[in-house]
Amino acid sequence: GFYIHPSVVLDASNGTPYGFANVKLWSRSQNFANKHERNYRDLPIEEKESYKWIEVSEQTISALKAQVPGMLIVQDREGDIYEQFARIPQEGVDLLVRARADRSLPDGTKLFSSIDKEQVPAVYSVFIDARNGRKKRTAKVEVRYKQVEIKSPKRINENTPKSLKIYFIEAREVEYEGSDAVCWRLLTTLSIDNMEMAMNCIEWYSWRWRIEEIFKILKKEGYDIESSELEYASSIRKQSLMIMEVTIKLFLMRLAYAEPEIEITPGSCFHPEEQQLMEEYMKDLEGSTQKQKNNYSKTDLKRYVWVIARLGGWKGYESNRHPGITTLWIGLKCFKDIAKAYKIFKDLSTR
């Protein structure tokens, strides 16, 4: 088997996906020893598998530095690595990482509890969907933030700073006792001077979920790459990269519906020939009532996303939930089959 660690590029103003800055692929040897056998804690960071977070951050900077005025690298708990906070931030580059460890601070307190006495400048509400036995609810979330100084681990080399000043943000659900209460603790090298900036960080971190959706499409709920019958590992790797390119189109299609104020052209996902075919096929998908008509402009990607969603099982009523990634993936796969059949028919009819 092999592992994939992608770096997805999103527009910070609206979440529009542009592609991948870097995709790291690697395999473990059959004799891969466990952490205890390798004395993992004492290894230099470069010899640890977790170094992938720093490596991909560096590759992302290399790929984008000349193209954008600034970038924020957003990572999950595994990216909470002291060496990364020491190495990656630079002019125009910052980190936003979910805190994994309840670090000891120089004043003797612990990171997570250090924020308890801070004022709550804002409270916001967020709707929580029902999922896996969880009931839907509206969560009341308190937000706090402060600057903290974090200490280096004992294993650190002498060229790394012994402490760093960064900002700590906590978004914690209140008035709810369930084990699934919302609690996000974020560390960032951005300067958090007001609640607006703190809320921006919370929103930017929420976009990290797109990575999980990429793997959902790549695995069981989509292409089921793990069941591929290709003979060579190198072929499966190439197939995985091709599928990941498709996920960007799926994100753009979903965004077109979820954020109607964002203008996305049809050409970002479909060739003119594909658009023409959908115009013809659309007649069979529209219903008899006005609510089941596709009234979007031909210059709007939503017009063609409507077709893909209908092919994926969406009912076509705007009052229903917007089509999700899985629905769009099913619809796109169906449309590709239709396009192949149309091409064969077209080739035969001109002979």
Give the helix/strand layout.
Elements lengths: L2 E8 L6 E10 L24 H14 L6 E5 L6 H6 L5 E6 L23 E7 L8 E15 L11 E12 L8 E6 L6 H12 L2 H10 L14 H26 L13 H14 L15 H11 L13 H25 L2
Parallel strand pairs: 3-4
Antiparallel strand pairs: 1-2, 4-8, 5-6, 6-7, 7-8
Provide tags for this entry.
351 residues, alpha+beta, Transposase Inhibitor Protein From Tn5, Chain A, domain 1, Transferase Inhibitor Protein From Tn5, Chain A, domain2, 2 domains, six-stranded mixed beta sheet, two-stranded antiparallel ribbon, 8 helices, globular
Description:
The chain has 351 residues and is α+β, with helices and mostly antiparallel strands. It folds into 2 domains: 3-207, Transposase Inhibitor Protein From Tn5, Chain A, domain 1 (Alpha-Beta Complex); 248-349, Transferase Inhibitor Protein From Tn5, Chain A, domain2. It has 8 helices and 8 strands, in the order ββαβαβββββαααααα. The strands form 2 sheets. A 6-stranded mixed β-sheet has the order 3-4-8-7-6-5, sandwiched between helices. It has a two-stranded antiparallel ribbon with strand order 1-2. α6 crosses α7 (301-311) and α7 packs across α8 (325-349). It is globular. 21% of the residues are buried. The model has no long low-confidence stretch (mean pLDDT 90).
